Amino acid sequence: MAEFRAPPGTHDVLPPESSRWERLVALFARRAGRAGYALVVSPVFEELAVFSRVGEETDVVRKEMYDFLDKGGRRLALRPEGTASVVRAFVQHRPLVPFKAWYAAPSFRYERPQAGRYRQHHQLGVEVLGTEDPELDVEVVTLAWATCRDIGLGGVILLLNSLGDDACRPAYLQTLTAYLAERGDELCDAHRERAAVNPLRVLDCKREPCTNATADAPRLLDHLCEPCRDHFGRVTAGLAALDVPFALAPRLVRGLDYYTRTTFELQSTALDAAQNALGGGGRYGRLVEALGGPATPGIGFGLGVERILLAADHEGVFAAPASTVAVWVVDTTGGAEATALAHLLREAGISCDRSFDGRSMRAQMKSADRAGARLAVIVGPSEVAAGTVTLKDLATGEQEEIGREDVAKLVEERLR
Length: 416
Ligand code: HAM
Description:
Blueprint: H1 17-34, E1 38-39, E2 45-47, H2 48-52, H3 59-62, E3 67-69, E4 75-78, H4 83-93, E5 99-108, E6 120-129, H5 134-150, E7 156-162, H6 169-182, H7 189-194, H8 199-204, H9 208-213, H10 226-241, E8 247-248, E9 260-268, E10 277-284, H11 287-290, E11 298-304, H12 305-315, E12 327-331, H13 336-347, E13 352-354, H14 361-370, E14 375-379, H15 381-386, E15 388-393, E16 399-403, H16 407-415
Parallel strand pairs: 1-5, 7-8, 12-13, 12-14
Antiparallel strand pairs: 2-4, 3-4, 5-6, 6-11, 7-9, 9-10, 10-11, 14-15, 15-16
Helix pairs in contact: 5-10
The chain binds histidyl-adenosine monophosphate (HAM).
């Protein structure tokens, strides 16, 4: 038994799982890059106040923050999500708008660990600052949707809602608060007292007393002001025009408080309700100001890497690749020949590996098999003397002796 283990709620990502991870990030980076998003890398910790602005009333801020004092007495916190960091960077550097950023970043939340719920999880996300245009909402939602489709997930539901803005939400909140006040006793323990402080949180509550008590609660979608209604209408029309299927979800309020207007979530039908959110996001109208910048609208999403891979496991898609390298160099002369040949092949852009420690031919061939290599390049004393190598197709067992000077060219041909 090892003395040390990864802390609760964290996990190591080892091969072959890590290669799926790598492919997922690469696929997302390509998709975001094609749409004009550029990578932003921000610190893993910030002043606590940066993250507090995502919502003083949320669990993320009230209960789950990894905050600490550093040796200089600064109050810092590990990033619980990606949006606040990007917005803080935007306010600090004031890039031109629209500012389109993507990121792949660890996030930290002190949650109760369970399947698909970690204390360190990883998000692939985008944020766009500087425009309210509903066509951008269509672009952003479609990017999240298409990423799930890229990896082959079939059971994904896109839920869509609008949370209104400063013009229409206050009146709605009053209506909702009055509705909840009449049903105070019926709410779950956590929300009986907090309902008046943040009534939207009650709609987000998954516990049965709250879902029962709010089954007929007034819907924000029915109380939007005209500009918000128009905006949302353009978003839904735009998604329909791109054939992105979605379902309206009037109760979808999300777990962070900065949202205004469009909000969305991608849920997997292959996962249990406790961890079925593959990702989510939406517009935030006030966050830039809350972090000291000029009034600037923003929108973005975060996709949970672990959740997406969990859903892929459940659906049997996006499997880890069976092979790590295409070629294995087998050297029975001591190892220096393998060094030279592996270098030559790698310089030619061919993935290859070799054994170390003067292992037997049999052991080296076994390693080739384990790596899923398609070809072995074999070199022994007779090949060295003749200036050749033996090329072996590991699937058919066929082999041929070839001139050493032709090895890269012929290996490339055989792999084609
Ligand atoms: P979020 O919904 O809190 O949104 O997190 C985004 C995704 O991260 C979730 O849908 C889920 O897949 C994953 N996730 C969250 N917490 C955990 C956890 N403890 N373990 C595993 N996966 C988790 C945000 O964080 C927003 N910043 C999204 C956004 C960007 N909104 C606007 N821009």
